[in-house]
Amino acid sequence: MAMNLFGFEIGKKSSAKGEVKAISPIPKQSDEASTTVTSGGGYYGQYVNLSDTDGTSDHELIRKYREASLQPECDAAISDIVDSAIASSEESSPVSLSMIGLQLPDKVKKQIINEFNRVLKLYKFNRNASEYFRNWYIDGKSFFNVIIDPKNPKRGILDIRSVEPTHINKVKEVESKIDPNTNLEYESIVDEYYIYSPDLSSNTADRSSAIKFSNDSIIQVNSGIMDPGRTRTVGHLHKSMKLVNQLRYMEDSLVVYRVSRAPERRIFYIDVGNLPKGKAEEYVQQVVSRYRNKLVYDANTGAISDDRRHMSMLEDFYLPRREGGRGTEISTLAGGENLGQIDDVVFFQRKLYRALNVPTARLEQETSFSVGRASEVSREEVKFQKFIDRLRKKFSFMLLDALRIQLILKGIITEDDWEEIEENINIGFIEDNYFAELKEFEILRERLEMSQMLEDIVGKYISDKYVRTVILKQSEEDIMRLDKEIAEEEANEDIDDEDIDDEDI
């Protein structure tokens, strides 16, 4: 069934004259989640597993990720990751645009900054940043629909709307070609688009409700993690799924053991004399019915009933004893020992935290965390901060992609220009972490102390530039800026001194 394309398309780059297109039998690696179909067949012309019955579809994985995120330990770890990645501030935005090394006129840079601020407003990023990041981290992917005015595209982006990941899927139509020079068979991408349908994740997807979106009208941000076969994109929670289930089963079995072994139970040895087996059992049952009292409270109705027909594992034991024994006797069966040991549960909790790249020290809430000297920072915290930086860099693609579309639509730059400058445009995340602030101050203090220790040999064995670049870690731009500021301050001091001398005269 043919579907009309919904959305917009940015003009494709025109190839330079005489440019040779690269041909290779090795397909281009991509971390985008997509379905590959043969050109001409279309999305619904191919066999595509839309059902989740096998438990391997992308939509089923997202559902499992969301269930795993509800585990208390997993939820606490995710909250630590989100809080560390997205810092909240009432005075400023959680992110800022960095254009270090970008060779563009100041006017164009100012326009880029203005459009970036516009993108943040469209996302409502200051208010929804943590929610965006959390959903992206759990699901492993996020989709956004970019809305423009088709009659006047130069107005730029009018709105950006979040799309439920289970309702959309990217499709790549490819066709096999043979290079006439080398006789190599390779796949060429004919078209790329998105299929959206609220029933896309159900067993019976309604083709009539499916909408075909253009590739440029959808912003996709994924985790960048591929499965071992590199056939699909998985989420950050994928490697922890087994541990979440193991921890859940361990806790459930622990509850069963506590309930069944904790209470003390009694054993009644009832003297049955020389009664035959059948009579002896009947006599024991009579004794049990006589002395056994089992009142049951129904929480739904509030009624109390007598339920003597069923015997649970927590009730007393009644055993017959033949003539010649010690007669009727009552003894106590001790409850289970070592009920307070949960080393196995703690083991799986720690293993879950390690799988999520969260320091295990954060698992014990009562443990104090030192934010003193930088040398006292644990290796786990350093690794965790590097992990957060990687997440931020991947997550920032949702802002950069929207900025690219905005700049191209408004005619500030072209698509070719963006490919030239995108490496010099980065998203910076603010740090309101007290630990990070103290760490920076501690490092600066150590550098200043080292520079003071080298004052006697500056100009003799090492140069002043060496101290500023190697010890103080000042860049060429920092040196020029600081020298200019120092000269201005000295000039102002000279003027003030002259004014004081004139007043004295």
Could you name the key traits of this structure?
505 residues, 5-stranded mixed sheet, 3-stranded antiparallel sheet, 17 strands
Word description of this protein:
With 505 residues, the protein is α+β, with helices and mostly antiparallel strands. Among the domains are: 24-235 and 388-430, no CATH class; 263-333, no CATH class. 40% of the residues lie in helices and 18% in strands. It is built from 13 helices and 17 strands. It has helices at residues 58-69, 72-85, 106-123, 125-139, 241-261, 277-291, 343-355, 379-395, 397-409, 415-421, 434-453, 464-471, 476-504; strands at 5-6, 35-38, 95-98, 141-148, 157-163, 168-178, 185-196, 211-214, 218-222, 225-226, 233-234, 265-273, 295-297, 304-306, 317-322, 329-333, 426-429. A five-stranded mixed sheet has the order 1-8-7-6-2, with no helix packed on it. Helix 2 packs across helix 4 (125-139). The longest helix is centred in the C-terminal third of the chain and has 29 residues, at 476-504. Residues 13-20 and 43-55 have low confidence and may be disordered.
Could you say which structural class the secondary elements and strand pairing correspond to?
A: alpha+beta
The N- to C-terminal Cα distance equals: 97 Å
Largest sheet: 5 strands, mixed
Helix-strand sequence: EEHHEHHEEEEEEEEHEHEEEEHHHHEHHH
Question: Uncertain segments of ≥5 residues (pLDDT<50)?
Answer: 13-20, 43-55
Strand order of the largest sheet: 1-8-7-6-2
Oligomer: single chain
Q: Report the mean per-residue pLDDT as an integer.
A: 78
Global Rg:
35 Å
Estimate the global geometry from the Cα principal axes.
Answer: extended
Tally of helical runs: 13
| Binned strand content | 15-25%
Helix proportion: 40-55%
Give the total of beta strands: 17
